[in-house]
Amino acid sequence: MSAIRIEDLHKHYGAVHALDGLTLTVQPGTVFGFLGPNGAGKSTTIRLLTGLAHPTAGQAWVAGENISRSQRVAARVGYLPEDPNFYTWMTPAELLDHVGRVFGLDAAQRKARSGELLEQVGLAGVRKRRIGGFSRGMRQRLGLAQAMVNRPEVLFLDEPVSALDPAGRKEVLGMIEGLRGQCTVFMSTHILADVERVCDRVGIINKGKLVVEANQAELIASTSLPAFELEVDPDDAPTLAAWLGGMQSQPWLSSISLGNGGSIARLVVKDVTAARRELLPLALGAGLSLRRYEIVTPSLEDIFLRLVGQEEQA
Questions:
Q1: 158: which of 44, 84, 89, 170 is 20 to 30 A away, CA to CA?
Q2: What pLDDT, in 10s, does the model give residues 117-169?
Q3: Does residue 309 lie within any of the structural domains?
Q4: b/e burial code for range 175-189 (CB count within 10 A of at least 16 → b)
Q5: Can you tell me the distance from the alpha carbon of 66 to that of 51, in angstroms, rounded to the nearest whole number?
Q6: Residue 68 and residue 222: Cα distance in Å, rounded?
Q7: Residue 113 located in a structural domain
């Protein structure tokens, strides 16, 4: 059984189609990265899947429950919104105790779970301090803790590390990695490096529609173009540019771009074997003094920008 199954899901706000026929499946125990530009429909999707909003059309199931049964879904999921808000007069310990009561935990369970989670998110030392004095990053950590009180089968995280400093991001991402296999994590974010680090699979949404969904390695292999990068000292940029001008006739070359003030050249090729054999000797034969020569592996950010850009032009 899928942890999340979405079939032709639509959500309209008047003339605005926030979701426009989204179809997606997420397998149990995976950490799934849900990506898209602002306004693509990421938060709308999470609100529908957690029962906080109702679809205009289509269906979806979370942990085996149809999202139309919002109360049954709520008992089996956890949710961290992008900007969590709490009762400011409460302490973290009181908040987690309150959430535990909502989920029917007894006093001993609430105490043990609260202590465990506050330790995990780095708030054990402020467990009795009023939440009203917390920074946004501290509220984000507390939000993650409250989302896990009921040991959810599916955990929804909307921009979970956007307010954290680098050290805090590292810790929280480590926690998310540790949940792999224990529950399904559905994580919306715009920080692509974080997705590369912790997510098994990636879905990219744009204008309310799924652009692509795949394992990270599969996505890179299926959408990337073979490319080589050459870097020279800035003083040698004119020599590099002149040499590239004569390279246009090479049959294995597809395109050339320059960066970093003209000192870095990226060459996209049609024939990797021929490029491996000929490119470096040609560069050295032209008298270029190379600082770097490598076959480029595209980042998730490169692929994201390429796919979303293609959608914008369509």
A1: 89
A2: 999 888 999 999 999 999 888 898 899 999 999 999 999 999 888 777 888 78
A3: no
A4: bbeebeeebbbbbbb
A5: 10
A6: 36
A7: yes
